[in-house]
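Practice problem 4.
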């Protein structure tokens, strides 16, 4: 099958007989790509349209990358159910496709009497959410599990199944499988207006009109604006910024678990977490903003994180910082997702996917596909998708530069291009030739790690840029 991926400069393709798409998904974040992948199993003409030049380029590229168990979700909510189910689905999918995951477990550490008193209720909440492996720890057990913790920890709650995952490989895997199964991906294709119709909606995009029978709005921070095109005034997205600090890999041995804060009346606090790349994260902040583009890091935010981090893991603050970044959660003032089908309108809003969308993505996709039937679409009989193997970016698996057999077969895997992250010429060549090649140095970094190390591309950046430019259409 030919793959249809279009970008700036390409016309939007005309379908045979001038037919509209059956379903169009707006937004190629982790949620929209998961939905497109799920729809790809059905005999439908599906389009995935994305404003930017790459998939996973919005909130999905800047989170804390935890595959949650959902132990602390609000019991009974849609989010609680979809996070629980999403964790199960994504864990299995990651194992099948090679998306890096490490089951490091989480510890919620109580630092004062209020936090200690809150732990039994959190344990009960975990059980109400169907998670039964959590258990309370006393101060000695906490210290034994995390020897570098700051002084004064009074106790903790252990959640052994919390894991860390690669946030970039996940939407890339979804989108790759979707495109290979026939979904049309249109990048650089912002939806500017929508003319809802009784049988066909017409989308005005930055690259011309696009017609579709059914529409799924997975536009993340902009889902409220898309929703208003249908005359609704149901929710407003208020971006909640989370700033994070990435510490160098030399800090990795300081922490064994994801160290989660105990939420109290004073707020949610910050966490310390390892990444699948071998770094350590400190963050995020929680700042209510009104600018949906405010992804910058600030002096105050970083100072706050350092102050909180010093209490949790004092030695971490002596380590080198590799990078800082910030992501915006799509908060809507409701402690649940805003997923709503509109049967008469052939439209589904998938809004308010705030802090757990990476984990829940596959379950959201399954749920939304079920809702499509209620909006009047008969999707037909699902088929199995072609299996997929993603490049192994995680530190827990054997990286190509260490694989003597692979290097003997293909010496490009023995030639380092990014020395900090040990990324080889073979991996970069593969990324550039993939179904969804990168269109920027940042996109290449998300596919290979090249340039993400302690020199942040100082040594290899110009070479990587030349490779991207040479790979253009
Ligand atoms: C700091 C932080 C930490 C987090 N930590 C975790 C975590 O540890 N675990 C977890 O599971 N989740 C976490 N999350 C949440 C998770 O990252 C989000 O829930 C998820 O990324 C949302 O994905 P999305 O696809 O809905 O949105 P996005 O990734 O923002 O995708 C929406 C896409 O729609 C596109 N778009 C918007 N408007 C238009 C338009 N008009 N036309 C065309 N395209 C459009 C955008 O360009 C964007 O690519 C965290 C979030 C943040 C900010």
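Answer key:
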């Amino acid at each position: 099958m030919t793959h249809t991926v279009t970008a700036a400069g390409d016309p939007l393709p005309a379908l045979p007989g001038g037919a509209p798409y059956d379903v169009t998904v707006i937004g190629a974040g982790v949620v929209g790509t998961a939905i497109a992948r799920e729809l790809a199993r059905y005999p439908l003409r599906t389009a995935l349209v994305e404003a930017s030049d790459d998939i996973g380029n919005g909130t999905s590229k800047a989170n804390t990358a935890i595959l949650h168990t959902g132990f602390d979700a609000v019991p009974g909510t849609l989010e609680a159910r979809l996070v629980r189910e999403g964790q199960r689905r994504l864990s299995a999918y990651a194992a099948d496709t090679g998306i890096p995951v490490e089951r490091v477990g989480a510890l919620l550490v109580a630092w004062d009497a209020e936090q200690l008193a809150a732990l039994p209720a959190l344990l009960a909440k975990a059980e109400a959410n169907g998670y039964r492996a959590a258990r309370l720890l006393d101060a000695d057990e906490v210290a034994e599990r995390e020897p570098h913790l700051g002084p004064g920890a009074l106790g903790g709650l252990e959640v052994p199944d919390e894991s860390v995952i690669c946030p970039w490989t996940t939407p890339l895997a979804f989108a790759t499988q979707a495109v290979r199964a026939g979904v049309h991906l249109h990048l650089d294709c912002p939806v500017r207006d929508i003319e809802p119709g009784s049988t066909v909606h017409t989308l005005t995009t930055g690259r011309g009109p696009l017609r579709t029978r059914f529409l799924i709005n997975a536009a993340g921070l902009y889902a409220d604006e898309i929703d208003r095109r249908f005359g609704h005034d149901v929710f407003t997205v208020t971006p909640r910024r989370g700033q994070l600090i990435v510490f160098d890999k030399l800090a990795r041995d300081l922490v064994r678990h994801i160290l989660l804060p105990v939420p109290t009346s004073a707020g949610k606090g910050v966490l310390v977490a390892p990444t699948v790349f071998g770094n350590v994260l400190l963050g995020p902040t929680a700042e209510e903003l009104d600018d949906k583009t405010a992804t910058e890091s600030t002096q105050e935010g970083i100072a706050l994180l350092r102050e909180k981090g010093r209490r949790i893991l004092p030695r971490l603050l002596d380590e080198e910082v590799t990078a800082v970044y910030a992501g915006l959660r799509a908060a809507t003032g409701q402690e649940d997702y805003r997923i709503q089908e509109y049967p008469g309108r052939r439209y589904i809003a998938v809004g308010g996917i705030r802090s757990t969308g990476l984990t829940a993505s596959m379950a959201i996709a399954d749920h939304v596909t079920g809702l499509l039937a209620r909006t009047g679409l008969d999707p037909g009989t699902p088929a199995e998708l072609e299996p997929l193997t993603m490049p192994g970016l995680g530190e827990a698996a054997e990286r190509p530069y260490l694989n003597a057999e692979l290097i003997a077969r293909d010496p490009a895997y023995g030639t380092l291009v990014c020395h900090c992250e040990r990324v080889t010429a073979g991996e970069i060549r593969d990324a550039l030739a993939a179904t969804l090649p990168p269109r920027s140095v940042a996109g290449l970094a998300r596919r290979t790690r090249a340039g993400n190390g302690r020199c942040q591309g100082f040594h290899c950046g110009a070479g990587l840029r030349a490779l991207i430019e040479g790979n253009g259409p």
